[in-house]
Predict the structure.
Amino acid sequence: MPSILRALAFAAAALAAASASATTTITVATFPDLDRAAKAALPRWHQAHPDVDVKIVSLQYADHHTAMTTALATGSGLPDVMAIDFKFIGKFAGSGGFEDLNKPPYDAGTLRSQFVGYTFAQATNAAGELAALPADIGPGTLLYRSDLVAKAGLTEADLTKSWESFIAAGVKLKAATGASLLADSEDIVDIVVRSNLPAGEGIYFDRQGKVLVDGPRFVRAFQLGRAAHKAGIDAGTTMWTNEWVAGFRANKIAGQMMGAWLAGHLKNWLAPDTAGKWRSAPLPAGAYASYGGSFYAIPKKAAHKAEAWAFVRFMTADKQSQVDSLRTLDTFPALLAAQQDPVIDEPMPFLGGQKARELWRDIAAKVPSIPVDKYDSMATDVIRAEYQNVITQGKDIPTALADAKSLIAHRARR
Amino acid sequence: MNNMLTSDAATAPPALVPADASRARWRRRARKLAPYAFIAPFFVLFGVFGLFPLLFSIWLSLHQWDAAAGLAAMHWVGLENYKYAVTDPWFAKSLLNTLWFAVASGVPQHLVALPLAFLIHTTLKRSRNFVVGAYFVPYVTSSVAIALIFTTLFSKDFGVINAMLPGPPIDWLGDAFWARITIAFVVFWRYLGWNVVLYLSALQVISGDLYEAATLDGASRWQQFRYIALPLLKPMMFFAITLTLIGNLQLFEEPFILIPPDSGVATSVMTTAMFMYRMAFSDGDFGTASAVSWLLFFIIAALTWGNSRLFGKEGASDVAR
């Protein structure tokens, strides 16, 4: 009996060794909808790399990032390639758990000029390590319902000239159509704090880590947000809630400032029945901002780094993959070469035939490089809470910002 | 397994040759070890999933640790995390929110459950099990289903509740004041049935003779409730209130599922358990999150102790009896 077992074990080991020499399997941890881009790229990948199999492990958005945090914490169960959403890139890049792609054998610095400039700043941590390469980006745009805006006798210029004219247009729109130009007045705050930053300054922290939230940028953001709220042009709904979705479907929300990828969400599931009625405009008052984006990184503990790097490059620096992602997901490519593809110049039926991707390309080129801090998401929460105090409890703005500053400084003590 | 062992022992021959002797010794040892093997699954599971996390969280609470940076990144900070948590204004705020929820959802639970249980006990006969079951359903319903139903019911523009109410629509889940009321209501709704079942089981133990005697003496239904049922329910009240206290101080699910974390009112409904979760999984500060959880534990322990001092004494011993 034992001899039979031994023979079997030996055979199994030989088999495993044989198959290992034939192909390597790399694991790619990702989340929907991004996983569809990777799946769509697989046939082409197999043609180019017949000896490397790719196993795609896809978890829901929040689960994926929690699982990856746990994997980084314990150093076990790490994939060869990890997809990271923009919201987590600061925290993950700051962890030091990833290969520095600036160093050999990666030398991703040579690729820098091929990508939208600000993405590399987002993926670079305080130690100057480049933790990931960008796959897609979210140039900030104002999506608005042209039919409702026209009905109120307004033009796009009324919406985008300045924040004051945006608010005035919102009042007219509400009076004429009953629709809100904003889901939430917080959207204005989010953009104004992100616009007109001095080069190299972060949103909430400067280079020395000093908290900036009591500065004029935040005062103005809060004032504009409050003015919009008082004018009653916001629907008072939080993004990604049922209310928000219903607002789009019932023609109650006529505008949303967001990454260009929102047009894809609107088309696919948020409000497919409103096709042709939406247009994309630059953000008001000459603001340029980016919303979201996705990245691919290689953990330090990855088993097959060479193959992983090939896959990361294949998903990010390969023009065809980037164009395919755009076609499958409606995401906007981070690779400049992909932005020159004819698909960018195609009219978009959902946006009434507008060639919106050309506009998004222009916006992407103008978004400044903002350094990302690992405490950014914490600071966002604090600012959001204080803004809410201003809106609902009438707290005055300087006090609210001073409170926010001391809390952020307290939290970012380390 | 057990059978096999005993039958083995029964058929063991009384006289032994040397080879058999070692086998018998082995068998004796196996018999001695067997109980431990049988009880091991519990202890292994408890050790891995109960004891280890408990001890590790004490250890963790004394360290600064950015989880994403790996285990090697832990470094000792002593009690600093506790000091840090106590001085964080959101911690104090979350404690106040938690206490508010504990009172606003806990007190009505018992004020309604007590008379309701008495009513069900005294008036319903055949339909009793059905009614009790109906009240108990929320307790066993999945929280995802509850979230779906209530966000739909309480929706500001499209909800049934606002549609039935006159006047301008109330932003049930988006306004700090109403969001708290809504959550307190959902907690009340969810745990009412549980308390009814507890009180009902205690009422069933009270002898019917007492009521009969009271009826003969001309006591009204109210007097029977006030002077017979209520005093005799005291031990169960102590038990139920203790459970409510512990449960409400750990409140997490209901506010977490009803209010989106990005919502402006998120901090107005943030309980201490949610603050702990946010510390760990949003800010990535697992050390402070562990410290918060231990602080919460001490607060719960202190309040439970206070509760038992206050009116538990004889109550607690009655339940034990």
